[in-house]
Design brief:
With about 425 residues, this protein is of the alpha/beta class. It folds into 2 domains: about 5-285, Spore Coat Polysaccharide Biosynthesis Protein SpsA, Chain A; about 315-420, 3 Solenoid (UDP N-Acetylglucosamine Acyltransferase, domain 1). It is built from 11 helices and 27 strands. It has helices at about 5-15, 50-60, 75-85, 115-120, 120-130, 145-155, 215-230, 235-245, 275-285, 395-405, 415-420, and strands spanning about 15-20, 45, 50, 65-70, 95-100, 130-135, 140, 160-170, 175-180, 185-190, 205-215, 250-255, 270, 315, 325, 330, 335-340, 340-345, 345, 350-355, 360-365, 370, 375-380, 385, 390-395, 405, 410-415. Keywords: ATP-binding, Carbohydrate metabolism, Glycogen biosynthesis, Glycogen metabolism, Nucleotide-binding, Nucleotidyltransferase, Transferase.
Amino acid sequence: MDSTGALADLNRALRGTLALVLAGGRGSRLRNLTDDEAKPAVPFGGKFRIVDFPLSNCVNSGIRRIAVPTQYKAHTLIQHVQRGWGFFRAEINEFVELWPAQQQTSEESWYRGTADAVFQNLDLVRRHDPDYILVLAGDHVYRQDYSKLLAYHIDKKADLTVSCVEVPLDQAKEFGVVGVDETDTIVDFLEKPSDPPHVPGKPEVAFASMGIYVFNARFLMELLEKDAIDPNSSHDFGKDIIPALIKSNRVVAHRFGDSCVLTPGAVEPYWRDVGTVDAYWEANLDLTTITPELDLYDENWPIWTYQLQKPAAKFVFDSDDRRGMAVDSVVSAGCIVSGAVVRRSLLFSCVRVNSYALVEDTVVLPEADIGRHCRIHKAIIGAGCKVPEGLVVGEDPVEDARRFHVTDKGVTLVTRQMLEAL
């Protein structure tokens, strides 16, 4: 088939694909950051939310039929998707639909696992009559061209394709690990193994599942119906569905490096599970460096979002005793740095840093207010925090641990509730 015909076939396949962005989980490893909202709704990168990354990947890849199953504390997430992702045209069968958990099965249970989250919405899936179903985790930060993943799935004549990223072997114990042969056919799927298999020819790395799957639609529906009546199943793709398929079906691994959207000059594909406080802090602070690993300024692969219309950031006072300034930092719209110094930090929208304060190596979430004479080092300041005048964070780990949450890597998490308890 010539390239024109192949492209036409791929375009038809993209139109026949339904993407399911699973966004129902809490993300408990983010501690108090998810007390009030699900992990996919947590802010990231100054103006975005984590869920914007898989949604933007879909749009940029040519997938315009998207559903977002939700569950845990979904109000913020639902509001964000409604406001920021309502530009699709239903007349040409484009949509982003929100599927709140509705206890739609006879058991009347909430989602019991990732596979059950899809199973409970099978009636909605069938109405859209897809040829392929793209299952996505709603809580990872990355840029990927799903059209290349889909083309690979079709070319391999697979029943299921699992997108995989290379991770150092000593870190693979934290992931679902995929064992493959020399043709990238999956021969093993292990959840957080103590002795993970390495990638053929690369003994120093393993394939970690990204929680991204392409299924032939009818094949997946039959699988989920069988799994739903299995009393021994936890109804999870990684724990139950995929391991059971390997011996009897065509299950292949797709290398993330073949479909990732690289930052110009980058060598390693960028994918982050920002599921811990340390990982979240590190990924946000990386954006303040001269050449971040994630390029949010790439106009060829934009990350779309919803944000309130706010005035530009403002820096005031320029005298010897107080100077409003930010160096090696990202400062979002609506921020005012008033006679304070900000270094190597990321300020989300509508943050105020008041006179004589010092903020270093810190992520400050929306609408926080840093009081005068505060000194904040290596911290995350939660949304809406009113940090009292003179508070010092990040200099005395024992005192910080008494009042706030301090991670193993020394990042101090401060939330509104913690401050109110002082």
